[in-house]
Design goal:
alpha+beta; 20-stranded mixed beta sheet; 16 helices; 37% helix
């Protein structure tokens, strides 16, 4: 039969519908088809079929139990989505409301973990590139400003020199380095402005123990040098070729056994966690930092470290190192390398020696524990952490006391942020650094002062310093250094030089990325650039390096003399003229080189 509430089919002789829970009562076995009705006026009404001629299929109503279940499932799904989207906020909440020790261990572990990630990433890239073909291109540019050249020419004119050095305002050195197994290639070009004046090329083959040198603008022939003889004289060894090949083989063997990036990363984080896990004497309180008119509410964590704590940390670390299988694998690998070079019998012997040293240290810590603690007396180390509302460390401090509870020194630093403004202070004993500025996104701009015993020694201006890239080890932004208000009085310079020096600034502009770097160093006076040094470079893929088929042996005096006689300076002088060097200077250079001979 069928339920009169939801229309679902139900078994006979039940009192309640299993689908919706409604009372069944007296229900006909089958639905009764409608019949024609004959009203009093004599007309009859007959139900009409659907337009498609199919009988109407009535959908059964969903039971209240199913609706409730779906509602609960919907709430769970929504909650899960919200939780995933706010995982960091949820984690921060639980961390902040954990015990003081757990709070400290988590925030410091996060901070140290970010540093470890950056260091291990750099290590991994160096390990990957070591011993493999690669290359590097770079340039060094020295540029004098127009105002500097004008001043320089005026000074020369006053001295009666009558020289015009305007053409010397831009000197460029371009370099290209490439290495492939036993061979390396170095190209260096020297230019004035956009004109390359001269270049030289050096090719080295450590397998043949030979080096080739060419200066294409002067002579197309290569000079060739036998490195084995040079190394034999300086190193006093026999077969230098065999020595170099053996050294390269040792390097390859060592690199193969170096731990991988992920192993180094996990080990560093593991032992940082072990140290932090031993620090449980932590107090937590809310505080407000105030500096330069700004204030910020934060959490202060005070961790007290006693001599007993330090001994326990040492014992815990040594015990864990002794049982660490990853460290064991690393030492066994290094032992195999040492065995190849006759230092030990095999890797196991080196590992056994390592374990024996650990056992000896553990025994000493245990046997001398009481005396060490007695010597330390009441001396303790107190570490402060200042943590903002997002669980980021914004300051640290350390206080040390001697065995008689007297102060053994302290230092601290912290940053107060309010809106887009910040203030900074670091007290390192005799040195104090203060500063303030603004933060926009990841970019920090501000002015700092370094003082020593109350005297202003150095001023530091920072512009658009990218904090995120700095944490990744790829600095970006500009740093300017200038004399402090009190330092010039301590430097032995002429009194008339003080005003000029007080207006000078040395700036460093960084734009460093994973495989390329760009650094510009400039000297400014009253904000105007005087001279700059621009260094840039980028990593390139390695390629095959071919060595010259022939060359002039530098030990063959006759052949070397012929090479020197064949030097052609026409191209060199042509390049100098194209770079704007005045004709009179070219004539003087010609006189020096050739004694008046034409070129």
């Amino acid at each position: 039969m069928f339920c009169n509430q939801c229309g679902g089919k139900i078994p006979d002789n039940v009192k309640f519908c299993p689908n919706c829970g409604a009372l069944v009562g007296n229900i006909p076995e089958e639905p009764v088809a409608p019949t024609a009705q004959e009203p009093e006026n004599g007309f009859a009404f007959t139900p009409q079929p659907d337009f498609d001629g199919q009988p109407e299929n009535k959908k059964p109503k969903m039971g209240k139990g199913k609706i409730a279940l779906l509602a609960v499932l919907g709430v769970v799904v929504v909650a899960a989505i919200v939780a995933l989207l706010n995982m960091n906020a949820i984690r921060a909440f639980f961390v902040r409301n954990s015990s003081p020790a757990s709070f400290m261990q988590t925030v410091e572990g996060d901070a140290m973990g970010s540093m470890v990630d950056s260091l291990s990433n750099t290590y991994g890239r160096l390990l990957e590139s070591a011993g493999k073909p690669g290359g590097f291109t770079g340039s060094v540019e020295i540029e004098l400003s127009d105002s500097t050249m004008t001043m320089l020419n005026a000074m020369l004119a006053q001295q009666g020199a009558g020289l015009d050095l305007s053409w010397l305002n831009n000197i460029v050195f371009n370099t290209q380095t490439q290495w492939d197994g036993n061979r390396s290639l170095v190209n260096v070009g020297v230019g004035l402005g956009d004109v390359e004046i001269a270049a030289f090329q050096i090719i080295t083959d450590m397998e043949q123990m030979k080096m080739w040198l060419a200066i294409p603008e002067l002579n197309q022939q290569y000079l060739v040098m036998d490195l084995s003889k040079v190394y034999s004289m300086s190193m006093q060894v026999g077969d230098t070729s065999a020595v170099m090949q053996e050294a390269q083989a040792m390097l390859r063997s060592l690199l193969e056994r170096m731990p991988q990036e992920e192993v180094v990363n996990s080990l560093l984080k593991k032992y940082i966690g072990i140290v932090l896990g031993c620090l449980n004497d932590v107090e937590k309180q809310e505080t407000t930092l105030q500096l330069n008119g700004l204030e910020q509410t934060c959490t202060q964590l005070k961790t007290t470290i006693t001599p007993e704590n330090l001994l326990d940390i040492g014992k815990t670390l040594l015990s864990e190192v002794k049982s660490d299988t990853q460290i064991k694998d690393i030492i066994l690998g290094m032992g195999e390398f040492a065995a190849e070079n006759g230092a030990v019998e095999d890797g196991q012997q080196l590992y056994d020696q390592f374990v024996a040293q650990i056992d000896s240290l553990l025994e000493q810590l245990e046997s001398q524990k009481d005396s060490l603690v007695a010597q330390a007396g009441d001396g303790v180390l107190v570490v402060y952490h200042y943590v903002d509302s997002q669980n980021r460390i914004i300051g640290r401090g350390v206080e040390m006391t001697n065995s008689d509870s007297s102060s053994a020194g302290s230092f601290y630093y912290y940053t107060v942020t309010q809106g887009d403004k910040f203030a900074f202070e670091a007290n390192l004993g005799t040195l104090v650094i203060t500063g303030d500025g603004t933060i926009s996104g990841n970019l920090l701009s501000g002015a700092y002062v370094l003082a020593s015993e109350g005297m202003e020694m150095l001023k530091v201006d920072v512009t658009d310093w990218d904090q995120a890239r700095w944490e990744e080890g790829t600095p970006s932004g500009t740093i300017g250094l200038s004399f402090g208000a009190d330092v010039l009085g301590q430097v032995p310079v002429a009194e008339e030089m003080v005003p000029m020096l007080s207006q000078m600034q040395l700036t460093f502009a960084f734009d460093v990325k994973e495989d390329q770097a760009d650094v510009k160093v400039s000297i400014l006076s009253s904000g105007m650039e005087i001279v700059s040094l621009h260094v840039s470079g980028s990593a390139t893929e390695g390629g095959e390096i071919s060595v010259p088929a022939e060359g002039v042996d530098v030990e063959d005096q006759q052949a070397l003399s012929q090479w020197l006689m064949a030097l052609d300076f026409n191209k060199l002088f042509e390049n100098l003229a194209n770079a704007g060097v005045p004709q009179e200077y070219l004539l003087e250079l010609q006189q020096v080189l050739f004694g008046g001979m034409g070129y």
